[in-house]
Each structure stands twice: as structure tokens, then as C-alpha cells.
Task: inverse folding
């Protein structure tokens, strides 16, 4: 039940949260494989494997009422590229929870946008940029 609620709430996030970066379109799965990092207060990393495996380090999972990261997790799981209401999204599954990560363009580069927590109006956007491509 919690997984369903989290998936529904994250689906709503993707439609409600305003981001200044434009939606990335027609992203091939191979463009997502590699190491990604979000700097600043997010200070988090995600590794997306060619085989669909995912690993996260310091992944924000909750935000307090002041918009600061309150909880983080280190975990492994899986990922897949999906389409929801005509827009591509990255779905990361860690344990029993699914999290939607939005695909954006920033300065001509692909960016992953994670919105931690349950309330997109009281959250931050963690902007992940690729740091390593697979060899």
C-alpha cells in the first residue's frame, strides 16, 4: 500500500513541480547509463547500470518543513525508463519504493531532477549531472 501511495504521489510531483529546465525528449536508455552527482545541499550520487541496476549514495528521501534534507539512504535497486502522460521519466526502485526522476535539459546537457519528500511545494530539486560514462 505504501509503495502505491509513494508511486502516486511521485506521479503527481512530476506534473506539479515547476522546473526552469525544459523537459528532455527522446532520451535513449544508453544516455542514462553511468554515474550521476547532485552537488550543493543535495550532495548525492546515483549509478545507473546498463543491466538495469541502480545504486544510490546519500539519496535524499525526506525534507523537513524548512525545505532541508531530513533523511538520506544508501541503497541498491533497479531502474527503468518509462513514459507517463507522453513524457519520459526515470523510475528508480529502491527496496519496495519507486521514485520518479524527471529528465531535463540544462545548458544542452541531460540532467536528472529528483524531488525528495512528499510535498513538492516544500521541497528542493536535486539536479544530477553525469560525471562518468561507462567504459
Result:
Amino acid at each position: 500500500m505504501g509503495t502505491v501511495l509513494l508511486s502516486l504521489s511521485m506521479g503527481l510531483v512530476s506534473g506539479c513541480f515547476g522546473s526552469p529546465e525544459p523537459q528532455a525528449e527522446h532520451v535513449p536508455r544508453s544516455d542514462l547509463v553511468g554515474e550521476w552527482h547532485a552537488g550543493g545541499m543535495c550532495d548525492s550520487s546515483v549509478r545507473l547500470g546498463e543491466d538495469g541496476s541502480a545504486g544510490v549514495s546519500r539519496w535524499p528521501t525526506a525534507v523537513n518543513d524548512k525545505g532541508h534534507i531530513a533523511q538520506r539512504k544508501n541503497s541498491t535497486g533497479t531502474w527503468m525508463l518509462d513514459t507517463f502522460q507522453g513524457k519520459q521519466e526515470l523510475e528508480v526502485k529502491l527496496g519496495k519504493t519507486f521514485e520518479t526522476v524527471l529528465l531535463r535539459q540544462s545548458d544542452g546537457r541531460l540532467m536528472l531532477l529528483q524531488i525528495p519528500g512528499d510535498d513538492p511545494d516544500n521541497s528542493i530539486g536535486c539536479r544530477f549531472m553525469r560525471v562518468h560514462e561507462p567504459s
Summary: The longest strand covers residues 69-84. The CA atoms of residues 82 and 88 lie 6 Å apart. The two ends are 39 Å apart (CA to CA). Confidence is low (pLDDT under 50) at residues 1-17.
